[in-house]
Amino acid sequence: MTTTDALDTTFMRVLSASATARPFVLALAGVGLALALSGLLVLGSGKSPLAAYGSLASGALGSRDRIAVALNKATPYLLTATGVALCFRAQVINIGGEGQIAVGGLAATWVALALPDAPAGVLPIVAALVGAVAGAAWAALAALVRLTRNVHEVLVTLLMNFIGVLFVSEMLQGELGEPGAGFPQSPLLARAAWLPRLVRETDLHVGILVALAAVVAAHLLLWRTPFGFRLRLRGASAPAAIYSGVSMKRSLLSVMLVAGGLAGLAGALEVLGVHYRLIEGFSSGFGFTAVSIALIGGLNPLGVLPAGLFFAFLETGALAMQRAVGVPSPLVLVIQGLTMVFVLAAVALPAPARRA
Amino acid sequence: MEFLAASLRIATPLLFAALGGILSERAGIFAVGLEGMMLAGAFAGVIASQVLGSLGWGLVASVLGGAFVALIVAVATVRFGADQMVTGLAVNILALGLTSFLLRGLFARGEAPIIRVATLKPLPIPVLADIPVVGPLLFQQPPLTYLAGAAVVAVALFLARTRAGLTLRATGENPRAVFAVGADPARVRMGALLACGAMAGLGGAVLSLQQVGTFTDGMTNGRGYIALAAIIVGRWMPLGTFLGCALFGAADALQLRVQGFRLPVSSYVIQMTPYVVALAVLAALGRSARLPAALGVPFLRERR
Q: The complex's ipTM?
């Protein structure tokens, strides 16, 4: 096979690739295996796995309030994981979600505190947008180190997570902190900055709609636009992408900007919709969870949706499970980690040959 | 003096993990899972010391704990060809969850118990320990610190002077060539990963059995990632990586030290220093850092 033939094959593959059922089936199998193995662990600790999973499910879905909490939890996951999925599609291994979320939340808080007299309808929108810009800027910084100094983006984004989170703590200790509070947190934001509720008498805020819109937009972007095609081509084969004139550098920078913006938005919505203030450690673990969700979702925005909801319900139910059955809540991390390992291994296996 | 001692103390667990990581990465597998391997080692060491009542068994368990996590990585990446970076992240999450779960599940009902075990005591080396300044610093250390020093030399000699070391390096550069001369790259990588896990597990034992004497959730706290950066700073060479670990140890020790003074910056800014230093050093090295050529590339016989 000549080089041109190989490139042609790559083009065909990227052009014809679309959302197939295979990743979905593999993800389900991965989740099933992970639940089964974790169930054995529960059994080993002398508890009934069925009772544990039962209380997990009722803790997550048992009432309107629980569902509202879970959907709020899903919001930052869906936004961040959608960005991660786009990055990974393009072979840009951005694991800087946590730092980008933290910086986004910080920027949104700063805006909300700086403009206490802004009209209610405008302030949350402005604060959320500034959060998104801050997240994008934080990601762009990582991209620039990657591009100019040739340090792998995994390391840059990882190290910038620690720096971003500590930067938030630093701001809370200084300028943005609430004097006299026992805990590093900002003062409560003015009511005008709060995100409106979606359903009365629950905590559910409008963020979940923003997240859903982002998922759909990312789906269209990835599968229906030239930009999305360039991302997929870049990820499928760097030589093919270069051959067809895709700039490796520009596409890396742009996909990092998109992902950073989504993560920053996630941080902003978390502050404006859930806590109504900036709290130290509010983004803890979100970034890595988003990576898991993106993978289990088959690096497909529409696949991210069920995966993100699954993780959010899992975590919402975890504390209920610990209270009701006495099974420790870190079991949820075990389930998440196992699911990732299984899905990763399964996805890497060659697909069964299909006739053309 | 006190500062140097603190640097050495902080660098020791990093050094074990980073040396293990060198073996893994020179064989062509990214060692992102170091954090999870260290955590599993720290946990297994404490549990075994408590249950079996002996620090010796604790050390054995640390080695096995780290190797267990490495085995998961090995099967997923070598056997199935899974993405190495993300598999590393996955086992880090898994190790965090598993250790926290087992700590509560095995010893208490829901609440995290506090397990106290004895720590490895300093072992002064006769004569040498009496040398002024250098003696207390280098020759009145606990056993794992000596072992870490010996491991630097051992890994360096292994990679540079032995046949197995040559095969390992060749696997990281060109696995097909290794396959062509009759060795099995998959097996080499499996072995390198297990050795990596064992060493990272010992790194965890330094924390839990030599320094703290207990296990707390997520006690490695990002050290595995710092070890990863130290490998790159040291350009995948044992001696260079030793210097990288020393650099990060010093940066961290500086943080402890300046907390005593009244400085215009807060403790958070100082906590940032190791990460900023890591980033700055990586950026400064930039293009001059050359990765093993086949690092991150799965070798699957049927898919050549």
A: 0.89
